[in-house]
Specification:
By secondary structure, the chain is an alpha+beta fold. It has 13 helices and 37 strands.
Length: about 700
């Protein structure tokens, strides 16, 4: 029986059939009209949204508010709990760089970070020596949405580049700040990717510009004090299928131009000794060849999958001749041990790898070749490697946490192997790790694979099938969901929920093959793995089908749409945040920001009848049918350039038309934000509280 009572009539989107014929097959889309024809301009100025579309989205929000009206007090309680677990006046441990150490902090009640620095050997907590370089709350005043891209200081520490987005569209404006006075210079750069790479002298920097389809297609060189119109075009990427970014080396000797899609890489280098030089190719792009670079003095260290190294290996090449023919193996490929990232310093090479599903940090002495690893003993945990801001150092920084253990930040001396605990995450409202259990279990998949599931629950939670469960999944782009400490989910766990993360194919949780087995023609493995996780949790009585609420966002929202079609009876409710559900239509529209770069992940249905059929077979929107769907909450952002607002809007309209069940289908569109939702830290908590209130209500625990 539904827990939603006395709802008003749900909005009914008008049908305006539009047809599309590809490869001899014709589809009819009744709700294509929800896609604003002027979406590019609307992302920059939301006020120009077609009035009919706006009315429909606002009607959906009104209906959603009515359905969730009885959870208002619960939302406030959840928000207060989650806020109570945050140290409001928190500060990072500053990272040393030259004469200073740089960090971020928050003030009590503040939504946005402050960027500060102190003298290198100063005490981090000494407010008298702390200089605030950028106050995010001050910059955000009067704006419904505001997100800072960061503050990048120049090598001489005199200036900083900072970027902001005040619409949620991810078109960032860049400014240049004088770090001694705190004043911004006249430089103003529009439509950028949000950051830049300084030249060593601090008088110029390199940055990316987004085109009208929101792609970072050009790299420019900006000289301080000149207008953006005079900036020199350094490189333009002609292939719309590739992303592009620009960065600098720790040694300030090179500017890196990183060009890549989801399976192919190309680096171009500009020596900082000649900023006007033509970017030099390291290894030309070859489909399927991936590599990334870091400096090592007289060599580059190159992380690559070349020569069949599916789980990657590390090579080195002379700085003077870094081309592929000069690559020499340093760290060999070990099948089943996936190297995730690497860093190099004057005396050590460092890399983060995943083995047996768990992360570890490996350090090699560059002089002796001796290696040792940093690892932990818990059943499931997360490691983060932040490294150092300086090249000539023996000290790196890493973080550790688990589902029960608050995050700990360490400095690590690579020479002496001494760990120094710098900070343990504070939970002001209190946290007893011994009151909780974290486990790593494995669900048998349809083809015999074992799907890892990370669990968190209270020790006193009954494991007899009666506990509600929030089952989270993502499963795309090789992204691994870490088993890290999350104070927010404690609000569910403390109410008797089992919190579960399904580490399904499409991520790299079990190595690169785990990613390959969940993409392109094998995409449905992702969905089947998630359903297998639900089956296992039901079978082992951690929960039951009648108590599982599934959650996923973005590509994980596609997962939510797929499992809703494939096994609606196995879920009590579904939360789909900014869900990529209109997959076929999006992959057929090469004007959309992410479509060409996404073809290596999903396939290109424009050119390939085979991939047209494959995507059509699972695309959630195209497979909505007459079946009893569970309660569904879909969330979108009006200016989202990644998953456009019309995807969840169309999906909800079609679900509501087709469902044979009585559970409501709800749509919440944030009219002031994009893909990441609200930008402030407490505003974001309000959104999480809303989603959790839905889960608690659906599970009958409100």
């Amino acid at each position: 029986m539904s827990v939603f009572k006395n709802l008003p009539a749900a909005p009914v989107a008008p049908k305006k059939p539009a047809t599309d014929t590809r490869h001899g097959m014709t589809r009819t889309d009744d709700y294509a009209w929800l896609r604003a024809e002027n979406w590019q301009a609307m992302f920059k100025d939301p006020s120009i949204l077609d009035p009919e579309i706006r009315r429909h989205l606002e009607a959906e929000n009104t209906y959603m508010n009515a359905a969730m009206a009885d959870t208002k007090d619960l939302q406030k309680t959840l928000f207060a709990e989650m806020r109570g677990r945050i140290k409001e006046d928190d500060s990072s441990v500053p990272m040393k760089d030259g004469p200073f150490a740089y960090g971020t902090s928050y003030v009590t009640g503040g939504e946005h970070p402050r960027y500060f620095r102190i003298p290198r050997e100063g005490a981090a907590g000494d407010e008298t020596i702390r200089k605030v370089l950028l106050d995010g709350d001050r910059e955000a005043e009067g704006k419904a949405y505001f997100r800072i891209a960061g503050l990048d200081h120049s090598s001489d520490h005199s200036r900083g580049i900072w970027g902001y987005d005040d619409k949620g569209s991810e078109y960032f404006t860049l400014k240049v700040r004088d770090l001694s006075t705190g004043e911004d210079l006249e430089d103003l750069l529009e439509n950028t990717g949000g950051g830049g790479a300084w030249a060593p002298d601090g008088k110029s920097f390199f940055y990316t510009v987004l085109d009208e389809n929101h792609r970072p297609s050009k790299i420019f060189h900006h000289v301080i004090g000149t207008p953006q119109s005079e900036d020199r075009l350094v490189y333009e990427e002609p292939d719309a299928g590739f992303f592009m970014s620009v960065g600098g080396s720790l040694l300030d000797d090179f500017i890196y131009i990183d060009i890549h899609d989801h399976e192919t890489s190309e680096y171009r280098l500009i020596p900082t000794s000649d900023l006007a030089a033509e970017p030099r190719i390291v290894a030309e792009r070859v489909t399927g060849l991936e590599y990334s670079m870091t400096e090592g003095g007289d060599v580059f260290y190159i992380l690559t999958n070349a020569d069949g190294a599916k789980d990657f290996k590390i090579m080195e090449a002379p700085v003077e001749a870094p081309q592929k023919e000069n690559w020499r193996e340093v760290v060999p490929h070990k099948p089943g041990t996936l190297i995730l990232s690497h860093m190099a310093y004057a005396r050590h090479l460092v890399w983060l790898q995943r083995r047996n599903g768990l992360p570890e940090i490996v350090i090699r002495d560059r002089r002796t070749g001796e290696e040792h690893a940093i690892a932990f003993a818990e059943e499931a945990y997360s490691l983060g490697l932040s490294g150092a801001a300086e090249y000539d150092t023996d000290i790196i920084r890493f973080s550790y946490s688990s589902m029960t253990t608050p995050s700990q930040l360490f400095d690590y001396d690579m020479q002496t192997r001494k760990r120094t605990l710098l900070k343990t995450q504070e939970v002001p409202s209190g946290h007893d790790p011994d009151a909780y259990v974290t486990r790593r279990v494995f669900a048998p998949a349809h083809d015999g694979e074992q799907v890892p599931i990370t669990l968190l629950y209270r020790k006193d939670t009954p494991l007899d099938g009666s506990a509600p469960c929030l089952l989270y999944g993502y499963g795309a782009y090789g992204i691994t969901i870490p088993a890290s400490f999350n104070t927010n989910c404690l609000s569910l766990v403390d109410r008797g929920f089992v919190y579960a993360i399904a580490h399904i194919r499409g991520g790299k949780d079990k190595g690169f093959h785990w990613y390959e087995d969940g993409k392109m023609a094998k995409k449905t493995n992702t969905f089947k793995d998630f359903i297998a996780a639900a089956d296992y949790l039901n079978q082992e009585k951690f929960t039951s089908y009648a108590n599982i609420v599934a959650e996923g966002g973005s590509a994980g929202g596609m997962l939510m749409g797929a499992i809703a079609n494939m096994a609606p009876e196995k879920f009590r409710g579904i939360i789909a945040a900014v869900p990529f559900v209109d997959v076929l239509s999006t992959m057929l529209d090469d004007t959309l920001p992410l479509t060409p770069p996404e073809w290596p992940e999903w396939g290109n249905p424009i050119d390939s009848p085979e991939f047209y059929d494959i995507i059509a077979s699972y695309s959630p929107y195209d497979n909505v049918g007459a079946r009893p769907y569970p309660a569904i909450l879909a969330l979108g952002g009006l200016t989202d350039p990644r998953v456009t607002y019309w995807e969840p809007a169309k999906w909800v309209a079609k679900l509501r038309e087709e469902t044979t069940g009585s559970e409501p289908i709800l749509l919440k569109t944030n009219m002031d934000a994009g893909h990441g939702g609200a930008s402030g830290r407490f505003q974001r908590l309000e959104e999480i509280a809303f989603e959790y209130a839905f889960a608690i209500k659906v599970a009958g625990k409100a």
